Amino acid sequence: MDSIHDDTCPRFEATLELVGRRWTGSILVAAGRGARRFGEYRAMISGISDRLLSQRLKQLEAEGLIERTVIPSTPVQIHYRLAPEGEELVEALMPLARWNMRRSGARGGGWIPAA
């Protein structure tokens, strides 16, 4: 029997920790639903602070899940969007979101990101 501590286990745990960070799922869903500018994320994600949104966007960019584009205009505009790996991650999370909806359906909770 293989050990659960082979090379794949710590990498998978790191992915789960990344996705499980507070607001990360909401940010990925907002990006998938078309949020591009910082204010659009704030409008779609009720309760997140500017500081934490900025921090999470930077983390997701560093992980290659969000792409950041600076548009040299006056004033400078910054746009965010899902990177291809971010799109793959959201797609991979869809079955989990559907499972959550079925599981919590009787309690009225859960969400499913836009396809």
Please, could you describe this protein's structure?
The protein has 115 residues and is mainly alpha-helical. The chain has a single domain (23-107), classed as Winged helix-like DNA-binding domain superfamily/Winged helix DNA-binding domain (Arc Repressor Mutant, subunit A, Orthogonal Bundle), CATH 1.10.10. The protein has five helices and two strands. A two-stranded antiparallel sheet has the order 1-2. The longest helix is centred in the last third of the chain and has 21 residues, at 84-104. The chain is globular and about 60 Å long. The mean pLDDT is 87.
Spell out the blueprint of helices and strands.
Layout: H1 8-20, H2 24-32, H3 38-44, H4 50-62, E1 66-71, E2 77-82, H5 84-104
Antiparallel strand pairs: 1-2
Number of helices: 5
What's the structural domain tally? Answer: 1
**Overall strand count:** 2
Quote the average pLDDT: 87
The whole-angstrom Rg is 16 Å
**Overall outline:** globular
N-C termini distance: 39 Å
Which structural class do the helices and strands define? mainly alpha
- Spatially, the strands of the biggest sheet line up as 1-2
CATH class: Mainly Alpha
CATH topology, anyone?
Arc Repressor Mutant, subunit A
Taking the sheet with the most strands, its summary is:
2 strands, antiparallel
CATH 4th-level superfamily = Winged helix-like DNA-binding domain superfamily/Winged helix DNA-binding domain
Instruction: Name the helicity range.
Output: 40-55%
